[in-house]
Amino acid sequence: MTRLRAVLRARGVLVADGGWGTMLMRRGLALGECPERWCLDRPDEVRDVARQYVGAGAEVVMTNSFGANRLKLERFGLEAQAAELNEIAARLSREAAGPERFVFGSVGPTGRLLVVGEVTEAALAEAFGEQAAALVAGGVDAILVETMIDVEEARVAVRAARACAQVPVACTFTFERSAAGAYHTIMGVAPAAAARAALEAGADIVGTNCGRGVADMVAIVRTMRAAAPDVPILVQANAGLPDAAGVYPETPESMVAHVPALVRAGAGIVGGCCGTTPAHIRAIRRVVDRIREGR
Amino acid sequence: MNDILQRIATAVERGKTDRDAPYPPDLRGEEGAAELTARALQQGIPPERVLADALVQGMQAVGDRFERGQAFLPDLLIAARAMTAAMAHLRPAFESGAVQHRGTFVVGTVAGDLHDIGKRIVAMVMEGNGWKVVDLGINVPAARFLEAIPGQDRCVVGLSALLTTTMPAMENTVRTIKAQHPEVPVFVGGAPVTAEFGARIGADGYFPNPQGLVRHLGRRGV
Question: Which of A6, A160, B18, B159 has the maximum number of C-beta atoms within 10 A of its C-beta?
Answer without folding.
Answer: B159
